[in-house]
Amino acid sequence: MSTIKDKVALITGASSGIGRSTAEAFAAKGAKVVVAARRKDELDSLVESIENMGGQASAIKTDVSNAKSVEQMVEHTMDVFGRLDYAVNNAGIEGNFGAITDLSEEDWDNVMNINLKGIFLSMKYEARAMIKLGNGGSIVNIGSVNSFLGFPTGSAYVTSKHGLIGLTSSVSAELAPQGIRVNLLCPGVTDTPMHRRLRGIVGDELYDQGLLPTVHLRRAGLPEEMAKSILFLCSDESSYITGSTLTVDGGLTLTM
Ligand SMILES: NC(=O)c1ccc[n+]([C@@H]2O[C@H](COP(=O)([O-])OP(=O)(O)OC[C@H]3O[C@@H](n4cnc5c(N)ncnc54)[C@H](OP(=O)(O)O)[C@@H]3O)[C@@H](O)[C@H]2O)c1
């Protein structure tokens, strides 16, 4: 993956979990990274740790559901590092779960605004910058096994993640002529703060005896394992992959 060295990667949702590990993985390969999320203190500590390892990073407080904030995130990337080669649109929330008869309009909108509109807005400004630069690029959106699978009470989250398949394949077709590839990485159960919150809701017994046995590898994935696959989709190693989904779930999707 030598193509990554000295390139610029923008990662949303980098204050935690998969996004944080992805930022660290890009930095370890010699990329300059811009890390975005709402919790600036978490981003600042990530930047400090990347710089302590000899890398280059910059933080920008961002709310991906807000167009102005997303525009500023991309402007910041251009101001600080002068280019944009890779964008990882990872920011997402699980939101509140609820039966269709009870789910509030506010809960629905909150999940859609961050998980689906947030990726529309991110790609809009990232693509403008990449097209203007004329160097091509690679965008990786983060879906989920719930881009394919529903579950009771999960209609908002599941719908937002299903929508990313259509969004990703449409934008891939639009941007291919400019040399920009767009893919959707779909993680399975991954050991992050989001996952630990969900485990708390499901309960240890159902998690250990109901969910984990459906994973062929019988364990949760690590955020570092997601990061490796994201780097693959960004690098030239995946030069003929666009408009595609890559499921990284230890075998879960084929079992359920
Ligand atoms: N963990 C899993 O098992 C799993 C499985 C499938 C898919 N995924 C997907 O993977 C992605 C990362 O999840 P994770 O497990 O790493 O969760 P996480 O640890 O909760 O991290 C989520 C990240 O998204 C950021 N974020 C949330 N709302 C945002 C907003 N409005 N603007 C900017 N950033 C925002 C959070 O930062 P702030 O709070 O600081 O804004 C945080 O950095 C999500 O899209 C999730 O749906 C996770």
TrEMBL record:
SUPFAM superfamilies: NAD(P)-binding Rossmann-fold domains. Its EC number is 1.1.1.47. The keyword Cytoplasm does not apply. Gene3D superfamilies: NAD(P)-binding Rossmann-like Domain. InterPro entries: NAD(P)-bd_dom_sf, Sc_DH/Rdtase_CS, SDR_fam. GO terms for molecular function: glucose 1-dehydrogenase [NAD(P)+] activity. The keyword Oxidoreductase applies. It is an enzyme of class 1 (oxidoreductase). Keywords: Oxidoreductase. Coiled coil: none annotated. Belongs to the short-chain dehydrogenases/reductases (SDR) family. PANTHER family: DEHYDROGENASES, SHORT CHAIN (PTHR24321), ESTRADIOL 17-BETA-DEHYDROGENASE 8-RELATED (PTHR24321:SF8). NCBIfam families: PRK07231.1, PRK12826.1-2. This is Glucose 1-dehydrogenase. It comes from Fulvivirga sedimenti. The lineage of its organism: Bacteria, Pseudomonadati, Bacteroidota, Cytophagia, Cytophagales.
